[in-house]
TrEMBL record:
One of its GO terms (molecular function) is NAD(P)H dehydrogenase (quinone) activity. Residues 6-340 form the FAD/NAD(P)-binding domain. GO terms for biological process: aerobic electron transport chain. This is NADH dehydrogenase. It comes from Erythrobacter dokdonensis DSW-74. It comes from the Bacteria. Its cofactor is FAD. The keyword Flavoprotein applies. PANTHER family: 64 KDA MITOCHONDRIAL NADH DEHYDROGENASE (EUROFUNG), APOPTOSIS-INDUCING FACTOR 1. Belongs to the NADH dehydrogenase family. Gene3D superfamilies: 3.50.50.100. Coiled coil: none annotated.
């Protein structure tokens, strides 16, 4: 009996999970063995993490368990964290898995591959600024978002109690966010949405005025990837909410409860979030594949790594500079989605010994959700004849479409649509905030 072709996808995130669903649906278990490896047991779409952090989304409701998903779509799942690739033997190695008490559950093990796809995402880039690792929180994973939420709620509770004891006390929860790209801006607005709802859930004397959010951006304006008009509109909206927006301000050090800026200011804060760009995890540059200075795998236009034809990389962990351009494709969910489609096509073509497709990125624009307050963004493409700035309800509808696309990508359109509807019902029948 001939050996099955083993296709291993490492990372079940925005790109990897869509890919493995399509591979499973296409090849099933007959001639191929499709394997997903992820360090976690469940998937949550990363662009939702700012809502998890603010407490306005319960991650339990939106997570997708890999074991149930793989049973449905005909692939196998292994929990484990990639820590090595042996390209000679065509195997990957996974670090041991431990339980909550640190006991080893699964020892170090290896998995054979014929085709390997790396889709392990990114982590926040602290650019080596002293003190950031020790004192700032990141929004790279569900655990980190939940840690932020717990600390935020604790501070809100502290302020609420202090105000009850002494109504004249000027107590505040001070949150500083470094980086005013999509993540920082969306988090700032979402925090005001959440703070406004806390008074309904037992923190009677807490309201938005007790929250002091400072958004710090090193560049000359917030949302640098959006047209200036939209960046100004978002700036105005945030200021109206109460956010202190500091542009052209570079943070040079993080202290236990303060950030120090290049121009000598000290910004005190109870919680500090670092959201100033992304890079690949450090270990990616030691796997024997060529990487750039941000630890991202260099890939060709077929999305095969420049080092190995049998290894593809996609999404945030891949660096692809399209011909004639000087910058790589930005780390976005839409890029991961489009790359997953190209890798799927190319794996199918490889099976038939056909020439591989070239990846072409179609930038559909950027949309930034300012929670329930507003949505701003720009649409790109042939349909709108270039770039079109949009705001309001239409922008909100298109913003949620990106998630709808992802749900269809990982569940198929029937179940994806049902889940979207269930999500809407949940927003009505469940509490507005997750408070535990
Ligand atoms: C708060 C926030 C808001 C965002 N908003 C938007 C938005 O509005 N629009 C947009 O386009 N993009 C947005 N992004 C960016 C977007 O989330 C990412 O570009 C996208 O998720 C990248 O997809 P990916 O598949 O490359 O990686 P991810 O979705 O990050 O998935 C990586 C997967 O790899 C797994 N993994 C990591 N390391 C290992 C390992 N060593 N071994 C095994 N598994 C591993 C992880 O557990 C994870 O499941 C946002 C990001 C954040 C944090």
């Amino acid at each position: 009996m001939s050996r099955k072709t083993q296709i291993v996808v490492v990372g079940g995130g925005a790109g990897g999970l869509e890919l493995v669903r399509r591979l499973g649906a296409k090849f099933g278990r007959k001639r191929h063995d499709i394997i997903l490896v992820d360090k976690n047991l469940s998937h949550i779409w990363k662009p939702l993490l700012h809502e998890v952090a603010a407490g306005s989304l319960d991650a339990n409701l939106d997570e997708v368990g890999y074991r149930g998903h793989c049973y449905r779509w005909g692939y196998r799942f292994f929990q484990g964290s990639l820590d090595g690739i042996d390209r000679e033997a065509k195997t990957i190695s996974l670090a041991p898995v431990h339980d909550e008490d640190g006991r080893e559950l699964i020892g170090q093990h290896t998995i054979r591959y014929d085709i390997l796809v790396l889709a392990v995402g990114s982590i926040s880039n602290d650019f080596g600024v002293p003190g950031v690792k020790e004192h700032c929180l990141y929004l790279d994973s569900r655990e980190q978002a939940e840690r932020f939420r717990t600390r935020l709620l604790n501070h809100c509770l502290r302020v609420s109690r202090a105000m009850m004891k002494n109504p004249d006390a000027d107590e505040q929860v001070r949150v500083s966010i470094v980086g005013a790209g999509a993540t920082g801006v969306e988090l700032a607005a979402e925090l005001y949405n959440a703070a406004g709802a806390l008074s309904h859930y037992g923190l009677e004397v807490f309201d938005e005025s007790r929250l002091k959010v400072t958004l710090i951006e090193a560049g000359p304006r917030i949302l640098p990837l959006l047209p200036e008009r939209l960046s100004a509109a978002a700036h105005h909206e945030l200021t109206e909410l109460g956010v202190r927006v500091m542009e052209a301000t570079q943070v040079t050090e993080a202290l236990p409860r303060a950030l120090v800026t290049k121009d000598g200011q000290t910004i005190e804060a109870d919680l500090m979030v670092w959201a100033a760009g992304v890079k690949g995890a450090e270990f990616l540059s030691s796997l024997g594949l060529e990487t750039n200075n941000r630890n991202q795998f260099l890939v060709r236009d077929t999305l095969q790594t420049v080092t190995d034809d049998n290894i593809f990389a996609l999404g945030d962990c891949a660096s692809y500079v399209p011909p004639g351009e000087d910058r790589p494709i930005p780390p976005r969910a839409q890029a991961a989605h489009q790359m997953a489609n190209t890798v799927f096509d190319n794996i199918c073509r490889m099976q038939k010994s056909r020439p591989l497709k070239h990846f072409v990125y179609h930038d559909k624009g950027s949309l930034i959700s300012l929670s329930r307050f507003s949505t701003v963004g720009s649409l790109m493409g042939n349909l709108v004849g270039g770039s079109l700035a949009i705001e309001g309800r239409l922008a909100r509808f298109i913003y949620t479409s990106l998630y709808r696309l992802h749900l269809w990508g990982i569940h198929g359109w029937v179940k994806g649509t049902f889940l979207m509807l269930i999500g809407r019902v949940n927003r009505i029948v469940r509490p507005r905030l997750k408070l535990h």
